[in-house]
């Protein structure tokens, strides 16, 4: 079944158009500073009607892939689910991660892996060395073939269509006329490696070698990247090539030994039933073809891809509907077919927000959710982590009330008399907790501070059992707070989120009854965004 060659019917044509409009909005936001744009600017940059931009942004916001803040639309960290689906399904990332890390350590230089994408090279692994003059591209970024080392290796396999599109692009871009890909590709084919001598960036030099598929085509390129302050192109080649080649061989072997497992049954997050509920809630504003397309895309997170029947089954969509979505995605270049019947994701999926979202810090992930919480409960909300015997604030949104609790990011407080501290202690392994409680000699800070190890152990146990901790004026007279844990993908407690209030305005009962449900919801939303953002980027976890 050659999906790309199929002529779509009218319904399929409409699916393609709706999906394309939705993804055009995502691409525009991907390119915008901080992945944020006024909706009126989105209208200008995409050429879509205002009403269409509104429907697209509402649909994406409903799916948790975007936030609408006043006049702005901002990509949400959860959108990295799309690129993660591609990276998880491609056995290359698993096969190459460890050898690439080892090579970067051995050479003490940055190492990256790119795969061919049209007439460009798209980063799928990036292992940078921290240097003052480091130019780092991110996983998901695309380099034009004529300006990078991998491009010269990939051009060996280009078909007529790719060469034509390449010539058209270069002709239209005055900045693109550096080096002739055909000449560099011929040289690379003879020598088995390619070089980028300050093509993409002044001062940057890179050397790349190919990893081949069984059929001889180039699967990916592994590059070693340095700076002219450390190496010339020639000295980098001499320094790096032998070990770079050995690394490519290791990856080739690891790939050959890897039998793609039949598609796992990872339940996609967006099933047909959820989409129907959304349709009821948003009415005509909900763009079903966009939501279905994204549901189908995320369900292709399966090594070896899925068949049409498996896609229908995993998403809960009717076969004909699932097929229309697959055709639309294939037509837009996000899905390819393998063999007769299987569908897989292409690296182009990474153009949907992945690179900018892979740079998010935990503070940026958590803060919008704290702001939503504060808007609902009108008291300050914070997130903190355990740091020795203290908690340390890593994100905070203050209340708009005149009397607020005034603590900034970076503030440290003792863990034992704080609600966040108790939730964090409750997340520790029992031995670790027992050690700490034995060691601790907690100071009484108010008349109510619990200081005996038994009382503290009971309070922590209560937090573990109930999933929240409430502290009533143990840290400071007049200050009440309630906290719940924030867990990572594996279920480990990595942070705590709380709401703090003045006891005169909101006492323990009010916190438990009126704040706890919203607090739990906020923690759940942070967890969803954090799971997506940290899957391939541990830098997104709170530190
Ligand atoms: C990089 O990994 O940053 C890189 C790789 C190849 C190039 C340029 C940069 O040609």
Q: Order of strands across the biggest sheet?
A: 6-5-4-9-8-7
As for the number of domains, it is 3
Characterize the largest beta sheet: strand count, sense, and whether it forms a barrel.
Answer: 6 strands, antiparallel
Q: Please tell me how large the radius of gyration is.
A: 26 Å
CATH architecture term of the largest domain: 2-Layer Sandwich
- Number of discrete helical segments: 19
Structural class: alpha+beta
- What's the CATH C level of the largest domain? Alpha Beta
**Structural shape:** globular
Q: Strand portion, in percent? A: 15-25%
How many strands in all?
A: 18
Uncertain runs with pLDDT below 50, 5 residues or more? 1-6
What's the CATH topology label of the largest domain? Beta-Lactamase
Instruction: List the ions, cofactors and other small molecules found in this model.
Output: P-hydroxybenzoic acid
Straight-line distance between termini: 49 Å
Instruction: State the CATH superfamily name of the largest domain.
Output: GAF domain
